[in-house]
Amino acid sequence: MFSWDNPDDRVAVVQMNSELRHARLELLSAECATHQLRLRFSVEDLARFAEGDLLRKAIESAAALNEFYASIERQIPSATEPGEVSTPPLTEDQVRDFSTCICSYLREQRDRYFPIAAPLSAQRKATMEPFFSTAFLNRIRIVELIGERISDPPFYSQAKDLGVTNLPSFQQMASLTFLDVVVFNERIADRALFDGLVHAVQFHILGLKRYSDLFVRGFLKTNAPFAIPLEAHALALASRFARNTTASFSVEEQVRLWIREGRY
Predict the structure, then answer these.
(1) I want to staple 179 with a disulfide (CB 3.0 to 4.6 A). Which of 31, 110, 124, 258 is the partner?
(2) Is the backbone of residue 223 left (phi > 0), alpha (psi -120 to 50) or beta?
(3) Which range marks the domain in which residue 235 is found?
């Protein structure tokens, strides 16, 4: 077992948490893909028409992961049985109010970080150009925070007073996109940058107001931050990029496709 008294163990713990963070991103991507299956197809149709071998392998993988993480959960000293979290229904006026709050917050944060943001380097542009237009990449600015992290927005307290829980912690995210500015809580990695750029494309095509409205309604429907269609799509595309960084595709075309199909 690890001991904090051992310097080598401390290094190993840091590496362990780094690898766990990467595994969590992959799991979130798989969860998002599964959530999209759940929304579009019934259990009965999947059981009847899905390719047998493909479905069995997916079930085996999910079962093995569940068994592994459940065994860890049983070892957590203060672990308690998680209760099912539900979001109370909000009125249409409350939904619009929260959408307005998000609009204002995103605009304010964009204006706050833009003066200290830098354009993408030539190397990062070269990595991303198979997936984004050059004109789009030229507009993007990035910020890598050092010694600080993005705070949760002030309207969170209002949401919690209304019984809205399971809100995403901005401090725990690798990056956040404020229109055309991507701000990183951690060192910039290609996958996190790609995810942030997908959101910038969504902002560009949908517009700030519609993006904010879809985000609020998506969260209230799913009650899971990473199952919000806007987030799920970004995660899925970032995972596709990470699996093969040389297999080019157009993120803008993918976003427009989801808009046409009403998947946001």
Answers:
(1) 110
(2) left
(3) 92-260
